[in-house]
């Protein structure tokens, strides 16, 4: 037993503390492990555990591979050599972690005699700490790599770092900063990585880390009594798409289809809720429903939005460090929104409205631009009160310009969903008809975890109906189609935001093809109706011409009485006695038949032309009118010929010819 204890003692002594000024507690054998998984296999492991010695609740422990004294000495040598011989990459878009790892391998190979000899596994452990401390986040690197963590906060010296876990909510970790210098150096390093500055003169920091995580920090004891503090709000490298939001139950397919429809018709909306409610995430997800033809300008203090649209201008505010009396170089959201209007955007999207920039945003809405934004509030009524109060000072008459307000909240679920007892839900969707008139069109039921909608009473859809010419029945039918289409996308397994945006574009293409097919069917129907109408006109003209001829020559229609057949001699003598009379030509009848034949030919040519070229000639009614006038004119001439002697008619015709 003494020999075993001696080996255990040597093994304990062989572990070296890598992070100076940071206390990392080890996992004891008597701790009850609730869950464990790797953050970076096999070097860092996460363990969720509980123990009476630790107090009530769960605890978040990081278990990293230890370094021996020889490994730690080699680690320090490599770090010192890299600080002198490190060369920046010459190519763009190089992964920093991979590049530092390659440089560390080069140093290890170059100075292998002085660095010592280790196995491949031991070298991997050394390189893990080199990359972790040079390009990573040091003692909290494992937390940063854990996809289940939403929030990391340090409240000062000798206080455990807390994390917000997606499954276990807020729990303390085994990491504690025990040295002010170590915590201050850590904050300065993160500020530099964010291209920002923090010091005693500027002790406040609001920045974005290279991985797009949001960093808020205070420096030393200038504004916080426990020393430096920080809070990192982690964002997914792969942002939530509308499919992800629907799958986790934040909203339903029908509500998503509603916002898709109002975005297409350039309506404005805002997302309101408390801190950590998911306002930015759901706004970013809804942007995948926008048309690819839209021109978008985003205005943010810390860039978080990433719409999958090509025509996108991203603007970011800037703080200045002005210690004198000269002009300040700060650029606020107010300035950026004013500038964005000169870009002629279809939509101006403000990451978060909290000050005077709200006034400019509503002025943009009044000039016809679309606007989207988020805002901190716990109800729609409080939103309106905040907007109409200083420093926003939005006039009451401008409030309805923000057409829809979505209220989202982090809630406790009636039943666990995917193992989670809490989640984020869209509590209400309200349309702003007037300053004090809100029409609720959707609501979440906290008892059944389902959504109820009343889009038949939608005031915004009625506005769209008036402006687009579509009836409410057609809009609701279109809403049903889009709901079904979104459900098909969710069931297909597609979840990437850009892939979802491409599916939305495919919907518009399919809709355009269906419209073109419908136009072809309508054109074929029109040709058939034109042919039928042409035949009807011809029949009417035949009847009209027959009636004219009956009035002109009624004797032609008299019944013929039977006469006795004369003998051959009588017939011959009769022919000798009477000279043969010249038969009068049936002028009106012959002209009418020719005219009708010409008319039929004209209609046939017109029908052939309409199959390739749109209507550009005279209509059937115009042609029928001309023909009827021609019939009347011919009938008048025929009456004149029948009532006038032949000589007089010839003289009259001769006079017409002689006139110049």
Topology:
Elements: H1 2-13, E1 22-24, E2 32-40, E3 44-51, E4 55-64, H2 69-85, H3 96-110, H4 112-115, H5 120-134, H6 141-144, E5 149-154, E6 160-165, E7 169-177, H7 180-193, E8 204-208, E9 214-218, E10 229-233, H8 242-247, H9 253-264, E11 269-273, H10 279-286, E12 296-300, E13 312-316, H11 333-340, E14 347-350, H12 357-366, E15 370-376, H13 380-387, E16 404-417, E17 420-434, E18 437-445, E19 450-453, H14 459-468, H15 472-492, H16 497-552, H17 568-577, H18 587-610, H19 620-643, H20 646-658
Parallel strand pairs: 11-15, 11-16, 12-13, 12-14, 14-15
Antiparallel strand pairs: 1-7, 2-3, 3-4, 5-6, 5-10, 6-7, 8-9, 9-10, 16-17, 17-18, 18-19
Helix pairs in contact: 2-3, 2-5, 3-5, 9-15, 11-12, 16-18, 16-19, 18-19
Averaged pLDDT: 82
Number of strands: 19
Shape: elongated
The helix/strand class is alpha+beta
- Provide the domain count: 3
CATH architecture of the largest domain: 3-Layer(aba) Sandwich
CATH class of the largest domain: Alpha Beta
What does this 3D model show about the protein?
With 660 residues, this protein is an alpha+beta fold. It has 3 domains: 2-233, Beta-Lactamase; 242-318 and 332-495, P-loop containing nucleotide triphosphate hydrolases (Rossmann fold, 3-Layer(aba) Sandwich), CATH 3.40.50.300; 525-557 and 584-658, no CATH class. 44% of the residues lie in helices and 20% in strands. It has 20 helices and 19 strands. Strands 13-12-14-15-11-16-17-18-19 form a 9-stranded mixed β-sheet, with helices on both faces.
């Amino acid at each position: 037993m003494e020999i075993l204890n001696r080996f255990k003692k040597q093994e304990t002594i062989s572990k070296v503390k890598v992070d100076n000024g940071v206390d990392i507690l080890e996992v004891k054998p008597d701790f009850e492990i609730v869950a464990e998984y790797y953050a970076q296999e096999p070097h860092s492991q996460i363990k969720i555990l509980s123990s009476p010695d630790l107090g009530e609740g769960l605890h978040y422990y990081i278990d990293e591979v230890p370094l021996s004294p020889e490994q730690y000495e080699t680690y320090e040598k490599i770090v010192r050599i890299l600080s002198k011989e490190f060369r920046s990459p010459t190519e763009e878009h190089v992964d920093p972690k991979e590049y530092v790892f390659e440089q560390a391998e080069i140093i290890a190979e170059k100075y292998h005699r002085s660095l010592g000899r280790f196995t491949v596994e031991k070298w991997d452990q050394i390189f893990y700490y080199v990359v972790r401390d040079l390009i990573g986040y040091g003692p909290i690197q494992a937390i940063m790599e854990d996809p289940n963590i939403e929030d990391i906060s340090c409240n000062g010296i000798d206080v455990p770092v807390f994390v917000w876990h997606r499954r276990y909510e807020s729990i303390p970790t085994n990491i504690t900063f025990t040295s002010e210098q170590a915590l201050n150096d850590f904050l300065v390093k993160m500020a530099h990585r964010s291209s920002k500055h923090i010091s005693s003169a500027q002790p406040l920091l609001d920045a974005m880390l290279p991985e797009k995580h949001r960093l808020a920090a205070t420096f030393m004891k200038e504004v916080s009594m426990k020393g430096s503090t920080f809070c990192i709000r982690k964002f997914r490298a792969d942002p939530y798409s509308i499919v992800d939001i629907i799958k986790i139950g934040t909203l339903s397919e029908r509500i998503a289809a509603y916002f898709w429809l109002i975005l297409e018709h350039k309506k404005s909306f805002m997302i309101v809720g408390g801190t950590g409610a998911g306002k930015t995430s759901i706004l970013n997800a809804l942007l995948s429903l926008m048309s690819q033809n839209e021109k978008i300008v985003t205005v943010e203090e810390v860039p978080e939005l990433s719409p999958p649209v090509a025509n996108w201008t991203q603007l970011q505010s800037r703080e200045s460090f002005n210690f004198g009396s000269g002009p300040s170089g700060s650029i606020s959201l107010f300035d950026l929104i004013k500038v964005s209007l000169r870009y002629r955007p279809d939509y101006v999207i403000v990451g978060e409205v909290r000050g005077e920039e709200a006034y400019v945003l509503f002025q943009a809405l009044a000039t016809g631009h679309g606007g989207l934004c988020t805002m901190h509030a716990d109800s729609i009524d409080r939103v309106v009160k905040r907007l109409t109060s200083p420093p926003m000072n939005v006039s009451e008459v401008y409030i309805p310009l923000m057409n829809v307000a979505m209220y989202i909240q982090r809630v406790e679920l009636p039943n666990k969903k995917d193992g989670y007892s809490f989640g984020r839900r869209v509590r209400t969707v309200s349309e702003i008809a007037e300053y004090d008139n809100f029409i609720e069109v959707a609501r979440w039921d906290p008892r059944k975890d389902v959504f109820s909608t009343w889009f038949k009473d939608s005031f915004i859809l009625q506005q769209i109906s008036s402006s687009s010419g579509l009836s409410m029945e057609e809009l609701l039918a279109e809403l049903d189609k889009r709901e079904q289409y979104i459900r098909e996308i969710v069931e297909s397994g597609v979840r990437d935001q850009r892939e979802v945006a491409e599916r939305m574009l495919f919907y518009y293409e399919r809709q355009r093809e269906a419209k073109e097919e419908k136009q072809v069917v309508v054109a074929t129907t029109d040709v058939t109706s034109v042919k039928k109408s042409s035949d009807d006109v011809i029949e009417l003209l035949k009847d009209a011409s027959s009636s004219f001829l009956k009035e002109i020559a009624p004797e032609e229609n008299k019944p013929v009485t039977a006469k006795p057949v004369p003998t051959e001699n009588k017939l011959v003598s009769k022919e000798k006695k009477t000279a043969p009379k010249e038969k009068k030509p049936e002028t009106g009848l012959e002209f009418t038949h020719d005219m009708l034949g010409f008319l039929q030919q004209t209609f046939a040519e017109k029908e052939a032309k309409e199959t390739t070229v749109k209507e550009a000639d005279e209509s059937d009614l115009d042609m029928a009118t001309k023909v009827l006038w021609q019939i009347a004119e011919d009938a008048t001439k025929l009456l004149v010929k029948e009532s006038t002697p032949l000589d007089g008619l010839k003289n009259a015709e001769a006079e017409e010819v002689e006139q110049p």
